[in-house]
Amino acid sequence: MKLNISSAKGVVIYFAVEYDAQPGDMAAIKGYFHGVHTVLTGKFLNGPYGSYAVMVALWGHTRPK
Fold first, then answer.
1. Average pLDDT of each block of 10 consecutive residues along the chain (65 residues)?
2. What is the value of pTM for the model shown?
């Protein structure tokens, strides 16, 4: 599917994970965001919105000690 969307330069599109994602969900969530990044990079800024657990799964960071 081809999208024909026009917007101002610098627009950010956030994609939300709006449920209590469990460890077993993270592989699918990571795959989804890989697809988002692949399709939108260079066209729109994009990023995730979700729980701390989702951010850790996507970015690979853990809480500072």
1. 68 93 95 92 88 91 59
2. 0.76
